[in-house]
Amino acid sequence: MFGYYNGVDNVGPLKKQNVLVRSAAAKRLSDQPNLGYKYSPSLDGQPDASYPTLFLNDYKIDELWLGKTGNIFFGNASEEDIGWYKQIVDALKTLPVREVIQTVMFRGSQSLRYDLYRRLQ
Questions:
Q1: Of the chain's two ends, which shows fewer C-beta atoms within 10 Å, N or C?
Q2: Is the distance from CB of 59 to CB of 106 less than 8 angstroms?
Q3: What domains can be seen in the chain, in order of their start residue?
Q4: Over the stretch 10-36, which tens digit does the pLDDT of each residue have?
């Protein structure tokens, strides 16, 4: 998403986690499916492809911090910067934060699992 955690300076204390907690968090993230949409326009009429998809990633977490307070900051990107996504970002900015349950910040990598990529429909 375009928003990012704006955290180290202005949130409560974040506690760095050990290798066991990082491994458990990576496993949990890897088990969560992501939704996408495949769309390929055609030169004439109906699109060549237009359907929802489900995919998984394998995560590796090198550093992980957890906390109980946090902020989110979306910045002021223009339509020239991010195109039609600006409408989504502007809408997200209007939503109130009702409660912060958990703050998570991590550094690592992910690999798309093409073998688990599925069409929904």
A1: C
A2: no
A3: 4-119 (2.40.400.10)
A4: 445 678 899 999 999 999 999 999 999
